[in-house]
Amino acid sequence: MMSVEPANENNSSSRHICMLPLHSQNCLRQTKKIVLRPMGLASIILIGVFTTVIVASSSPLQTGRREGQDRSVLNRLNINPEDYTEIGLTEGGVVNTKEMAQTTDSIKCDEPNPPIWPSSVKIFYPPQNDDEKQHILSIIQQTSDPISYDNSTAPYETYTSKRHFTNERHALLFHPGVYHGLDFEIGYYVQALGLGAKAGDVVFADCDKGPFVPSLERISVRPPWGLGLDTFWRVGENFKTEAREGMHWVVSQAAPLRRVHIAKKKTNPTEDDDKSGSLFLGFGDAYVSGGVLANAIVDGTTDFVGQQQWISRNVDFRGPAVGGAWSLVFVGCTGDQGNIPESSDGLDGRKSVTVDERPNVRVEKPYIAVKDDGISFVLRVPAPTYGEDAIGPDLDGAKDDVRDFSHVKVVTPSDEEDTVVAAVQNSASLQEALDQGKDLVLSPGIYPLKTSLKVKYPNQVVLGLGLATLVAPTDGSPCIRVLPYTPGVRIAGIMLEASKQDVQQNYSDERDCPDGIASLLEWGNPNINDDRGSSTNPGVLTDIFARVGGSNPDRTVSTDVIMRIHSSNVVGDNLWLWRADHVNLQPGETANYPLNPSDEASKLPRVSDHFYQVMKDECKVATGLIVNGDDVTIHGLAVEHTEEHLTIWNGERGNVRFYQSELPYDVSHASFGAKGYTGYMVASHVKDHDAQAVGVYSNFRDYIVTVDTAIRHPIEETKGKEINVEEAPLSGGKSDMVKDAFVVHLDNFGRIMSVVNGKGGEASEQGKPVRVAVGVDSLN
C-alpha cells in the first residue's frame, strides 16, 4: 500500500490528451462524412461508429454552450461552435446547424425502449384487487431482510442483518398510481423507486407503514430496541407515503431517503392517523449513527430520535424537527418559524445544530421515469441550481433534462462464473456504451472489472440501480475515471468495492494509475492541475458508497486511496468511503469478537456473532478521500477507519457540510497516533476552506492509541500570539475553516486529546462529545 501525504502546492505538470472520440449522446450509425477542424487541433474525422481525434497540440477538446445558438443538433453532438472552424458547413465561423442536421439525418438511436430489464429489477403497477396486492407483497418479501422468531422473549419477532453481505441486488420500480395497503420492509441492497416525473406520482395510501426500515435484531441486541448501527446499503426514492404510522427509516450510512413526500393522510382521517405525515429516524434506544434525507417534504414531525449525526438537505419541514444526539445539519431547508432548530455550537452541552440556509450549489440525483404512455422510459437529469433556486425541495422535475432511453444503455453484469472472464466482459460492454456517448444505467448486480471505466464526454450519466456494485480491477486501477476537462458528468447510485491486487499487473499497459497510486474512483488526472471544470455545470457524485473489505472474506483486498478528486467544480452528495471494520465470515469460521464468548471470562470486546472484525494490516487502505481540485462542495461525507489521514484536502475553497469519521479500530499507537494522523487534514498551503459539522470518533479496540488532535487546518498568523507550527502549520489560512467540530470517545482504549489544532479538551468520557469554539482565540 502506498502512503499518501498532503500535496505540495508547487506540484505542476503539463496537460495532455490523445485519441479521444467525439461525443455523441446517440449511437452514431451514419454513412456520410463530416470534417471538422477544431482550432489548435488537427482534423477530426467523423465516420461510422467511432471517431478519432488526431492531436496536433496540447490543447484538449472542450465543449460548452453558446447563448442564442440553435442547439438542436449541436446538443446531440456536444459541439461548441467557438471551438471549431468547420469546412463547408460554416457561415462566418459559426456552424450552420440546418446543414449539419441534414448531414446527420442518418444518426440512429439503437437502444430498445422499453429496455429489457433483468430479473433483479421488479416492476410493479398499482394493484386493482387484493390478489394483485398480495402478489406484489410476495415478490417484495423475497428481497426483504429475514425475520427471526423467538417465543421466549419480547419482542417475539424481528428483522435481522443476515443479508448484510449478500451478493443479491434488487430494484423495486413502481409505476405511477396509488398503491393501497402495501406495507413492506426495504432490505439490504434494495432500492425502492417511484417511476413518476414527480414524487407525488407514486402514492402509498391506506397503509400502516408503507415502505419502511425498522431497527434490526430486536430479540438479540438490547431488546426491545434492537440496532441500527449497521443498517446500511438501501435506498428509498421518488414517492409519496401517507402511512398511518408515519414513515420509519431507522438507518445509518449508505441508506439515503430522497425525493419523497411524507404526507398526512387526507382521506377519512381518524385519531389513529395522528402519526401520518411524520418521519421517525430512530426507534427508542436503538443505536443509529447518521444518515441523509434530501429533497423532501415532511408534513408532520421529523424525529431524529437517537441519531448521532444527520444531514437534511433541501427539505421542507412543515412540522417540527426534534430529537437527535450529537449533531444535526440543515442545508437549504425550509419550514415555518420554529420547525428547524436554531443554530447552536453545542458548547452548552446540548447537540450542535448547523444551519446553512443558502448553499452555494444544489444538484439533485438523476432518476429514471416512465413516459405518459406508461411503457417507454426516460432518464431525468436535474439541472444545477443556485441562489434562491438552491433552497427548498424540488419534487416536480420542471427543470430536468429529459433523455429518451433510446440513448441510454441498460447493462447487466456478465453471468460468467469465472470472475476473470466476467471482468473482461463487463469492462468491454460498459466501456463500449460509454465510448458511444450513451448514458449508462447499471441494473442491480455485481460487476467485476478488468479495466477502468473511462467517462470522457461532458454531461454523460452513469446511474446505478439497486446498489449496483463495481469491483475494482486487480491491477490497482480505479473502477471509474472521469477524464479531465469533462464538465457536467453525473455518477450516481453506485457501490465501489476493492479487490485483491495482483502486484504482477502493476506494470501492465492497461493499468490506469498515472502516479502509481491505486484507488477506487478518480475524477480527473493527478498529472493535470489546470482542469477548472465548470462552475455552472459541475460534475456530481451522488450516493456513492465505497468499501475496502466487506462481502469478500479475503482480508488481503486493498487500495491506496478510496477516492481522489483532481478536477475543480465537483459536487459530492452523500458519500461514504469505508475501510471495513467488519467483514463476511469465511466458510466454517466463527466470529473473533462474539457477543457471547465460550470463555465467559474473556476480556475481548463483545461485538458481533455474525461478522469477523478486521485486524491490523487487513483490508489495507491509507486514506479515504483526497481533494486536489478547487471549489469542491460536498454535502454529506463519511470517511471511516482508514490507516492514515482519513481525509486530505489540498484544493482551495472547499465546502463541506456534515463530516462523519471514525478512526480505525485496529491500529497501534506507533502506526497511527505517533505519526500524527488525523480524521480531517486541510493542507498547509490552503488559504480558504469551509467545513461545518465535523465529527471525529475513536474506538481503539486492540491497542492504547493517543491521537494529539482530530482535525488540522492552517490558521492565519495573529499578532502577539505564540503558535506551535507543528500543531497548526501556517500560510495565511483562515482561523475559522472548521465550525461545529467535535470529537467523541465511543468505546475501548485510548483517546483523542483535542479537537482542532491542539485545542479543545480530550474525549475520555464514553459517548460524550467534546467541542471547541470557533475563532482565533480558540485556536491560538
The secondary-structure class comes to mainly beta
- Please count the beta strands (DSSP E, at least 2 residues each): 55
Shape: globular
| Strand composition percent | 25-35%
What gap, in angstroms, lies between the N and C termini? 36 Å
Task: Return Rg in Å.
Answer: 26 Å
Share in helix: under 10%
Care to describe what's here?
The chain starts with 29 loop residues before the first strand and ends with a helix. The protein is built from 5 helices and 55 strands. The strands form 11 sheets. Strands 30, 31, 32, 34, 35, 37, 39, 41, 45, 47, 49, 52, 53 and 55 form a 14-stranded mixed beta sheet that branches. Strands 7, 10, 11, 13, 14, 16, 18, 20, 22, 24, 25 and 26 form a 12-stranded parallel beta sheet that branches. The chain has an 8-stranded parallel beta sheet with strand order 33-36-38-40-44-46-48-51. The chain is mostly beta strands and 780 residues long. β30, α4 (419-435) and β31 form a beta-alpha-beta unit.
